[in-house]
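Running co-folding for magnesium ion.
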Amino acid sequence: MATATLSRKKPAKKAAVKSSNAPVAKAHLNGKAGVKRVYFFGNGKAEGGADMKDLLGGKGANLADMTKVPLPVPPGFTITTDTCGDYNDAGQKLPKGLMEEVRANIAKVEKAAGKKFGDVNNPLLVAARSGAKMSMPGMMDTVLNIGLNDEVVLGLAKLSGNERFAYDSYRRLINMFGDTVMGVDHEHFEHELSAVKNEKGAKVDTDLDTEGLKEVVARYKEVYKKHVGSDFPQDPYTQLEHAIEAVFKSWMGDRAIRYRQLNDIRGLRGTAVNVQSMVFGNMGDDSATGVAFTRDPSTGENVFYGEFLVNAQGEDVVAGIRTPLECKTEMAKWSKKSWAELLAVKKTLEARYKDVQDFEFTIEKGKLYMLQTRNGKRTTHAAVKIAVDMLKEKLIDEKTAILRVEPASLDQLLHPTFDPKAKKDVIAKGLPASPGASVGKPAFTAEEAEERVGKGEKIILVRRETEPADIGGMHVSEGILTSTGGMTSHAAVVARGMGTPCVAGAGAVHIDAKAKKFTANGKTYGVNDWVSLDGGTGEVYEGQVPTQEAALTGAFAQIMKLADKYRTLKIRTNADTPHDADVARNFGAEGIGLTRTEHMFFDPTRIHHMREMILATDVESRKAALAKLGPYQKEDFVGIFKAMKGLPVTIRLLDPPLHEFLPHNEKDQAELAKSLGMSLDAVKNRVQQLHESNPMLGHRGDRLAVTYPEILEMQVRAIIEAACVCKKEKISVLPEIMIPLAGTKAELDYLKKFTVATADAVFKEQGVKVPYMYGTMIEVPRAAVTADEMAHTAEFFSFGTNDLTQMTFGYSRDDAGSFLPEYVAKEILERDPFQSLDIGGVGKLIKMAVTLGRGVNKDLKCGICGEHGGDPRSVEFCHTVGLNYVSCSPYRVPIARLAAAHAAIKESQGAGKKK
Ligand code: ADP
Ligand code: MG
Ligand code: MG
């Protein structure tokens, strides 16, 4: 039997009440007359339903719905999420009248269950379970076995004919209530349990007999009294009321807040509380508890995927203490009937919810009960396969299949896997809990992981098991390795949700967290040793195993093809090299939205010519240096044009301030001076001259071209010559020459003269002509505001939303890191505007510029090329304002393709609703 019900060490909470003898908390003045706060479910009928997740939380809504199917759900009721909101708004006071409503509903549960709450002869026990609209696994608190006390325990023993079970349940209640509700550290209870086990010579909890458990109960009560300052409350309603409050409080607990932040869950009022009649998986060897998915959440395969523990209760399975049995292989051996029932449940659930379900069940003396169902979290790999499979099975339609895959989550599939040809030294093998390849150095606590990642290290978090308080460290780690726990342990569930590779339950890994090392396969690995792990196979390797690029194949390719069918927005990529362009093409890019030419100058030989150009003192010598750079640029452009095979390529002319290309330490300056035959002083002077106090707003962008038109001439020449080369090789090209940072039409006009003259000269020399476009980035607010003027000269607009955001807010991009996180934490800003487009401000400028520009030229091509081009929310916005394309980094192209499809589908569905 279970060792301990609660393995989760929770941060100590303030005790809700000081004394159990205190009167039940007074009714407070925050009651709302006539508001229904409690919804009953039981015996095939329910007041709530699946469409009431906002009010009843996901768990409550689905308990109601499952009741109506009917599936065997123990009767109970749900207290609304609004009540939690009211509770916290009122400074954590239960609304007036709530407990009366609760009592009335307990009466209904009593009737449905044929038992009585607090009755010594025929006791009803209940669970108080949290459940917000979005599932927040392990984040909220649940209290089981409420209603037990010194007398009821005797009644339960008699009723069940199982005294041992009764005391086992009682000690669990005191522990859970003490820990979850009153904030007594779980360790104190654990300590007493171990002590009793030692004295009785019991190895595991199951070895403890009734007498042993009675002793545990007695000691737990002492622990409770010592730390709470009063006796364990004997009144069932006092227990229930405090448990309800504890669930409400847990909504505002650190773990819950952190989880919501990390998962971008906003705008919810609180959690519901589900009070439900208890059923018992710990009644003996004909009882069990388990969790299951209707399909494999790791691979997406259509197979029953679940685990169970015989004679166990509550979170024993999830907690990862005892290693549970696999349903698929073991359950039929234990009970053919239960296994058949579970397979039927799988069908019923999928037919009803049209999605993979993650459900919890308990078997009490052979009878199956359903305790929860929700849409199962899955890896992206599984999400894609399940969407494609369910479409084939006609469970869902194409649009639904597309919407089933979160665009941002595709990131998981775009990451490298281990090179199958690489040599691998397996040092341990665990469960393949969350797929993906990761390489890093071990860290042994979540804090250590966060700290070292902050310093730029790549970390594999190595723990016996993880717990909710670890999620910060789990989030930043490359991979997670645990030595205990199953496929549904905390580490496994959370890692899958995060898309972090995880190997769980690798028993051969012996961890000494204090000494910061672990041993496996006879060797010791410390904080400086590289390890690699494959969450898809469960293997752990020594060293840094080489990885290889992801490929767009199979179900992934199918879902992308479907997405392309529905999206209208084009997807381009930001690529500076032929290699990037190639990668992006393979991911489906339909052009290049941004080529940053300056990146081409950083190569060692090129930077030398670049420096020579910058240090030139007159136009002639500057032109001479530029002439050396030209051929390199041309070569790069030829490569990029060829890779893009006739698709449009937007090339941005030189943008950064020149000082960025010069060396800033004296040693390098001296070397440069020597190689150019200049004095060190002359070099230093020039560096000094180019120094800017705010380079972001300084001599950069088209301001460089205005002052040194010869730079523009060299670049335009390289572009047009490259295009001519391609044309002669019968490769079609579509260059779009893009002027950065312009703020006035006059700048564009001035630079256009040089551009056209240079292009014409090249055409004449080459004897061929190629079409090209002349356009501008819109990144200065003035450009957006005067877009109607700009559009007379510019043939296209590309919104450079990084700079546009910087200048609209007046936030220096490079310095914003010191205050933006606080702005987000304090909810002054909803999100970091550099990551997700500020729709209300920057978005307004974009919308205005598009409207103004298209007023002049209705075919004006408009796109976006900032970081935002790969952010699904921003992509959706770009779709709605009618941009022609978004451009993002190569690895985000599939994300943008899918996000664009989501935007188009949601728009059509929204329009359908309005009709
Ligand atoms: P979580 O949101 O953390 O999954 P739950 O409310 O589902 O919390 O409760 C955790 C566990 O407690 C469940 O997995 C189940 O095993 C057990 N449990 C909850 N309600 C009952 C009940 N009515 N009878 C028996 N066990 C229950
Ligand atoms: Mg919970
Ligand atoms: Mg649950």
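Result summary
The longest helix spans residues 619-644.
The pocket of magnesium ion (ligand 2) is lined by residues 130, 140-142 (CB under 6 Å).
Job closed.
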